[in-house]
Every structure is written in structure tokens, then in C-alpha cells.
Design goal:
Layout (H helix, E strand, L loop, with lengths): L7 H18 L5 H9 L3 H29 L1 H21 L3 H13 L3 H11 L6 H26 L6 H20 L6 H8 L7 H5 L2 H32 L4 H31 L1 H21 L3 H28 L6 H29 L3 H12 L1 H13 L7
Helix pairs in contact: 1-6, 1-7, 1-8, 3-4, 3-5, 3-15, 4-5, 4-6, 4-8, 6-15, 7-12, 7-14, 11-12, 11-14, 11-15, 11-16, 11-17, 12-13, 12-14, 13-14, 13-16, 13-17, 14-15
């Protein structure tokens, strides 16, 4: 994709996503240890806290996605971002375990901001360039994850609650940016047309669209592996990798993931799609990701963990934009927001289930969750290959 010719609206939404994700990602390495050290929560309860966000997102994302098709992207973005601000403030002021759960559930219910941002990107991007454009969104994620977790690990030294208030400030900045700098991507006529069809696509109907069904299966299995990693990574870092300051160490490792995602999505993704096509890139991505998860399953050293993070990041950087692009191209444009809502809801369901069991797996052994993730990642190759076969039978428009 030629960066010099990017739509200004795309640049604006990428900046919004970046600031949003810096705030969100800086709490990732500190939340599990915050819950453990400040509230005495067990690993099983901590993973349920993580899962509560995705359970709420499972409910909220399809609704917000369809709503954005009907009333426009910008109003829904503003509402969801305000929910994020409130949730971070609740974390910073929490005095009981139930407040932590309430904050995560609120953020999950209103957490359609990324779904709507991705729908916005598909609005302003031609179909044949959606994978690359969505790759830029994930590149913004990557830059944020390069900065945010390491920043969180540093800020926690100022106090265990300080990072949450800073994250709330970043989210508040995003609200202002959205209100004052972002133009609506759907015209009044488009919204009126979308209202007639936006509610038609349900989960059962989505499963009858074969490429969309295969895409949802890929993301479900792949996100199950990711959920296990997210829920246990900070605990794994404390027990296995770092003898002191685990928050900083885990934050830096997440920074490695962010860095390699940026490299992948800005330098590799477009070339890979041009050469192999979206569906074949998905298969390659899953294989690379699987190798990274396998390295986590056997490592006890920081050096191997760095390599595992890099491989996982490259695989994820190639996988997520391509599977989303295939999903959005499988239905009428009037259902883009609804499809992305179903897509995100599927990903959330996968994370709910995997996070809920990850604490039990971690209790068996710190490496057990990563072995399970490794096996699930292997399984996700099957639906990806089915997408390749479907693509060969029914060729998609060229991405060159």
C-alpha cells in the first residue's frame, strides 16, 4: 500500500486506534499482578477476571457493530470510548474485587471501539486493499503494544494504581480526537440503506456463508490460543522467566511482540498477499504462529521467550488482517459493521472459554497452557486450508 496516497480519514482513525491501544495495553502486564498482590486473588480468579471482559464483549460487539451500520461509526465510537474511560477510573479507585469485575464488564460491553474502527477502515478502503488497510490498523496496535506494556511496567514503580489513571487519560484524549477530528464515513443515504439490512445477518446465517464460516472457525481456534497466552503471560513471566520486576520484564516482552507486528504489517503483509494471496498467507501465518507457541511451551529462558514472541508476532501480524478481510468480503457491504461485530464476538467467545480454563491449566504447570495453545494453533490450520480450497474454486479479486 502506498503510504503517500492514504485517505486522510484512514490516517485519523489509525492515530485514534494508536492512542486508544497505548492506554489499553499499558495495563496488560500489570493487571494480573495488581489483582494478585493488591486483592489476594488466585490465578483461577484472575483468569476469570480477564475472561469477564470478553464475555461482556461477546454480548456487546455484535450490537455495537450493527448499530454503527445504522446510525454511523462516529457516535458509536464516542460512546464506546467513554465506557473505556470510566472503566479505567474504576480500576484506579477499586477497593474490592467486585469493582474490578464491574470495570472489566463495563469496558467489554462498550468495547466496540476497535470493531467500529475496523468497520470505518473498510468503509474508506476499496475491497481489494482491505487486508493491507486492516494491516495498518494492526500495525497501529503493534506500535501501541511496543510502547504501552513497557510503559505500564515502568509506571507501576510510581504506584500500582497510577497506570490506570494514565490509561484513563489516554482514553479521554481519544474521545476528544474522535469528536473533533473524525468525519463520519457513512453518508445519511448509506445509513438509511443499511438500516434495511443491518439486522439480517445472525450467527446461523453467517455460518451458511462458507468463506465467512471458515473465517470464523479460524479466528475462534486462533483466538483460543491467544486467550491462554494473554491470561497467563504475566504469571508465567513471574514464575518462570524473571526473578525480579516481572511487570517490567513482561512489558518488554510484549513490546517485542508489538515491534515485530509493526514490521510484519508495514513491510511484509502487502508483499505476502501480492505473492501468495490472502488465504495462503493465512496458512503460512498460522504455521509461524504455531512454532512460536511451541517455543513458549518448552522455554525456561528469556532468550528463547524473545524468539517465541517474535515468531508469534509475525504469525499474528499476517493472520489477523487477512482473515478479517476475507470475512468482510464474504457479504454485502451494507453488513460490514455487523460482520465485524460477529467476528469480534466469535473471537471474544474463544477468549472467554480459553481464559476461563487457563488458570486451571496454569495450576497444573506454568508450561501447560502454552502446550494447549500450541495444539489448538495446529488445529486452526484445517479451516485455513479449507479457505484456500474454497478460494481456488471461487477466485477472489486480485489484491495487486
Amino acid at each position: 500500500m502506498d503510504f503517500r496516497n492514504l485517505d486522510k480519514r484512514l490516517i485519523t482513525i489509525l492515530l485514534i486506534v494508536f492512542v486508544q491501544m497505548v492506554g489499553a495495553s499499558l495495563i496488560i502486564p500489570i493487571l494480573p499482578l495488581f489483582a494478585k498482590n493488591e486483592f489476594g486473588m488466585s490465578p483461577t480468579l484472575i483468569t476469570l477476571l480477564v475472561a469477564s471482559f470478553y464475555a461482556a464483549q461477546f454480548i456487546g460487539s455484535p450490537i455495537l457493530g450493527r448499530w454503527s451500520d445504522e446510525v454511523g461509526r462516529v457516535p458509536v465510537l464516542v460512546v464506546s470510548q467513554i465506557g473505556t474511560v470510566i472503566s479505567f477510573i474504576m480500576f484506579g479507585m477499586a477497593g474490592a474485587v467486585w469493582v474490578l469485575f464491574a470495570a472489566r464488564i463495563l469496558d467489554g460491553l462498550t468495547g466496540g471501539n476497535i470493531v467500529v474502527a475496523q468497520a470505518y477502515v473498510t468503509d474508506v478502503t476499496p475491497k481489494e486493499k482491505r487486508a493491507q488497510a486492516l494491516g495498518l490498523v494492526f500495525a497501529a496496535f503493534g506500535v501501541a503494544f511496543f510502547i504501552g506494556p513497557a510503559l505500564g511496567g515502568i509506571l507501576v514503580a510510581l504506584g500500582p494504581r497510577i497506570p490506570y489513571f494514565i490509561a484513563a487519560g489516554a482514553a479521554a484524549i481519544v474521545v476528544l480526537m474522535t469528536v473533533f477530528t473524525l468525519d463520519e464515513s457513512l453518508s445519511a443515504q448509506e445509513r438509511a440503506e443499511h438500516q434495511a439490512v443491518a439486522k439480517r445477518l445472525s450467527f446461523p446465517q453467517a455460518l451458511r456463508v462458507r468463506p465467512l464460516m471458515f473465517s470464523l472457525v479460524v479466528v475462534f481456534v486462533a483466538q483460543s490460543a491467544l486467550g491462554i497466552l494473554m491470561a497467563t503471560f504475566a504469571l508465567f513471566g513471574e514464575v518462570v522467566l524473571f526473578a525480579s520486576r516481572p511487570e517490567l520484564g513482561v512489558g518488554l516482552l510484549l513490546g517485542v511482540i508489538g515491534l515485530f507486528q509493526v514490521i510484519t504489517q508495514t513491510a511484509l503483509l502487502g508483499r505476502a498477499i501480492d505473492r501468495f494471496g490472502e488465504t495462503r498467507v493465512m496458512v503460512i501465518a498460522i504455521i509461524v504462529r504455531t512454532v512460536g507457541l511451541g517455543a513458549f511451551a518448552v522455554t525456561g529462558t528469556v532468550s528463547v521467550a524473545v524468539v517465541a514472541c517474535a515468531l508469534f508476532a509475525v504469525g499474528s501480524g499476517l493472520l489477523m488482517p487477512t482473515v478479517q478481510a476475507v470475512a468482510t468480503r464474504s457479504v454485502d457491504d451494507s453488513m460490514r459493521g455487523g460482520v465485524l461485530g460477529i467476528y469480534q464476538s466469535t473471537a471474544s467467545l474463544a477468549v472467554i472459554i480459553s481464559v476461563a480454563v487457563s488458570g486451571v491449566l496454569f495450576a497444573i504447570s506454568p508450561h501447560t497452557p502454552y502446550m494447549a495453545a500450541f495444539v489448538m494453533s495446529i488445529v486452526s490450520i484445517v479451516p485455513a486450508v479449507m479457505l484456500v480450497k474454497h478460494h481456488i474454486r471461487r477466485p477472489q479479486p486480485s489484491t495487486t
